[in-house]
Amino acid sequence: LASRAFHPDNTTVKVGDHIIGGSEPTIMAGPCSVESQDGLLEIARAVKASGAQMLRGGAFKPRSSPYSFQGLGEEGLKYLAAAREETGLAIVSEIMEPGLVDMITSYVDVLQIGARNMQNFALLKAVGKTQTPVLLKRGFANSIEEWLMSAEYIMSEGNPNVILCERGIRTFETYTRNTLDLNAVPVVQHLSHLPVLVDPSHGIGYARYVTTMARAGIAAGAAGVIVEVHPKPEEAWSDGGQTLTLDQFSDMAEQVRQTFELV
Ligand code: PEP
Ligand code: MN
Predict the structure, then answer these.
(1) Is ligand 1 within 6 A of the CB of residue 114?
(2) Which GO molecular function annotation, any one, does this entry have (predicted)?
(3) Domain boundaries, the chain
(4) Parallel, antiparallel, or unpaired: how do β-strands 18-20 and 13-15 relate?
């Protein structure tokens, strides 16, 4: 179902009145973790003013250590929904457990499947039983074939609204957190009709390089980007080192739009 052989034309995914894979680049932006209602509203207003269509923010966080902050849970989803109410931004947030599908879909516009859960097949099947758009991140140790098969798990349950997201893979390189696999963008577009975004924040892992890689992802053909933004990245509860300030984000969004026009 994800294959271009089955569906020759590009698929677009509608979220609110924005079309992912349409004539303007999709920009999803926000904090790695939802922290507070006021802080989230400040970010939401700023990214909206800079042209983002969607607000990202983790309420359930897949942290490497069980002792790290695990997210605010449903409380965080309430803050996200309030930010949508005020700004009109669509909401993107991660789901980690099949049992939480009904609860989380009642707050969000796009369900994010994180890299660590790309092959959580019970979770893929559960989100496949909804019609809510799913942002399917590539696992950091998964092949393109495995990634597309995970899309297949969702689509075969009846949900055609899958958006792929390249978020970097593990390589031997140590100067970057991951290696954003730009190769994957044209390859996936050849193999599949689904829209593909890039996540340069996790993809490279350092704020100073994020704008360059956002541009590179768009130049490679991505339909848009998802990036981490915080007013004070050094104080962010997670992923501060790769998080853009509000001003850096505004500049990045402009560069993404300019690059998109050239592709
Ligand atoms: C995130 O978006 O904050 C996240 C945890 O992403 P990934 O699953 O790509 O690591
Ligand atoms: Mn993060």
Answers:
(1) yes
(2) 3-deoxy-7-phosphoheptulonate synthase activity
(3) 13-262
(4) antiparallel
**Could you tell me the pTM of the whole model?**
0.98
Task: Give the pLDDT confidence of 58-102 residue by residue, as tens digits.
Answer: 999 999 999 999 999 999 999 999 999 999 999 999 999 999 999
Mutate to test the pocket of ligand 1, among 202, 229, 239, 244 (most ligand atoms within 8 A of CB): 202
Q: Is 12 exposed, middle or buried (0-12, 13-18, 19+ CB in 10 A)?
A: middle
Query: What's the topology of domain 13-262?
Result: TIM Barrel (3.20.20)
Which residue out of 119, 178, 198, 199 has the highest number of ligand 1 atoms within 8 Å of its CB and is therefore the one to mutate?
199
Give CA–CA dist 222/237, Å, rounded: 29
Q: What is the pLDDT of residue 81?
A: 98
pLDDT at 84: 98
